[in-house]
Design a protein that fits this description.
Blueprint: E1 9-17, E2 23-32, E3 37-41, H1 48-56, E4 63-68, E5 71-72, E6 83-87, H2 98-108, H3 113-126, H4 142-154, E7 160-164, H5 172-189, E8 192-197, H6 200-206, E9 209-214, E10 217-222, H7 224-229, H8 234-239, E11 244-254, E12 257-262, E13 267-271, E14 281-286, E15 292-293, E16 302-313, E17 318-324, E18 327-334, H9 336-339, E19 347-352, E20 357-359
Parallel strand pairs: 3-8, 3-9, 6-7, 7-8
Antiparallel strand pairs: 1-2, 1-4, 4-5, 9-10, 11-12, 11-14, 12-13, 14-20, 15-19, 16-17, 16-19, 17-18
Helix pairs in contact: 2-3, 2-4, 3-4
Length: about 350
């Protein structure tokens, strides 16, 4: 998504400190477009949840400003922000029916009974629970309860919906299903969503853009394919997906490509996302699925031979591990058919294109 838009939501030089020594969010500048699904992704303690809590109004920035449609949100309490919230623990009232849970935010806004009924029916139909209005949360599965929580966040038609690890309590199969449910719902209603997770797959599946957080700063913000295929930092390459990380030294620079030498003396040609200089230490990033094995590897710019150390069966693919570049193992992801003739101890030819390797 282009950065050239009138931002629906803005963080302007936002910082958050809980004491004089710990800055949890550092110099955050972030624009979000109207109708965008933005995911804040990062490990525990990276600042993503604190960012969401400041946006919700449960935390105040130490400095800087948060603006929604050009209006400052600083100092405005949560219930006056017009923001829907979905949490991991659902936060449903157990003594109320599903319909009563959805009515609660409408009653708080003084909405007439007839309009409440219409809104509740529409919201429950939206999450495919149209016939569940009279049930209590305890009579629902985890996935159904999370759908009710989502419907309650949408029922008053907020400008913005915030989701904090909403699928974290669900089992994997249900979580995978709900990822697509939420993605398809967003595509239909086009509400702006800011979503927090530490689950990289969730972020890749659902988002228009992903902001990768680490130590209070955004390391990279881009659409999922760009984040995965073209990581800008070593942290992003390691955090998103599987990655082979190899230490190297730049020998020569040619445009946006550089020639590097590894610890064992092997030479590699790789793309560099930032200005490079000879003698500089870099970390090579190569995705396991981008490595070619067998005869097809002979003519590649980066082509090598090594001995297979281990073959790991992983259901839908096979991981082949071999020694390379002074590291203990290089991981290669192959289909069962590609790996069928390989055995531990075999010497194999393997390689990759320069554009599939990044010097970070």
């Amino acid at each position: 998504m282009s950065s050239q838009f009138d931002p629906f939501l803005q963080f302007v030089d936002v910082q958050k400190a809980y004491d004089s020594t710990t800055m949890v969010v550092k110099s955050l500048n972030l624009n979000v477009a109207n109708g965008e699904f933005l995911t804040l992704l990062g490990p525990s303690g990276s600042g993503k949840t604190t960012t969401l809590m400041m946006l919700a109004g449960f935390e105040e920035p130490t400095s800087g400003e948060i603006r929604l449609q050009g209006r400052s949100m600083n100092g405005i309490p949560p219930h006056k922000r017009g923001v829907g919230m979905v949490f991991q623990n659902y936060s449903l009232f157990p003594h109320m029916t599903v319909g009563e849970n959805l009515a609660f935010p409408l009653q708080a806004r003084g909405m007439r009974k007839a309009e409440q009924t219409t809104r509740i029916r529409t919201a429950l139909d939206m999450v495919k629970l149209g016939s569940f209005a009279d049930r209590r949360p305890g009579q629902l599965s985890g996935g159904q309860q999370q759908r009710v929580a989502l419907a309650r966040a949408l029922v008053f038609e907020p400008e913005l919906v915030l989701m904090d690890e909403p699928l974290g309590a669900l089992d994997k199969q249900l979580r995978d299903h709900m990822q697509l449910e939420i993605k398809h719902l967003h595509e239909r209603i086009k509400v702006t969503v800011v979503y927090v997770t530490h689950d990289q797959t969730e972020a890749l599946v659902m988002s228009d853009r992903i902001a990768v957080f680490n130590e209070g700063r955004i390391q990279q913000i881009a659409p999922p394919a760009e984040i995965y295929q073209n990581p800008e930092t070593d942290f992003v390459a390691q955090f998103i997906g599987e990655n082979n990380r190899i230490e190297a030294t730049i020998k020569q620079v040619s445009g946006n490509q550089c020639h590097l030498v590894l610890k064992d003396g092997a030479a590699v040609l790789a793309n560099s996302p930032r200005k490079a200089e000879a003698g500089e230490a870099r970390v090579l990033s190569v995705r396991p699925e981008m490595i070619v094995v067998g005869a097809d590897a002979h003519d590649l710019a980066n082509s090598y031979e090594s001995k297979v150390r281990e073959i790991v069966y992983l259901g839908d693919h096979v991981r082949v591990i071999l020694g390379f570049g002074g590291i203990d193992d290089l991981s290669i992801k192959l289909t069962h058919r590609r790996a069928a003739n390989l055995s531990v101890g075999d010497r194999v030819r393997f390689g990759w294109k320069p554009e599939d390797c990044r010097a970070l």
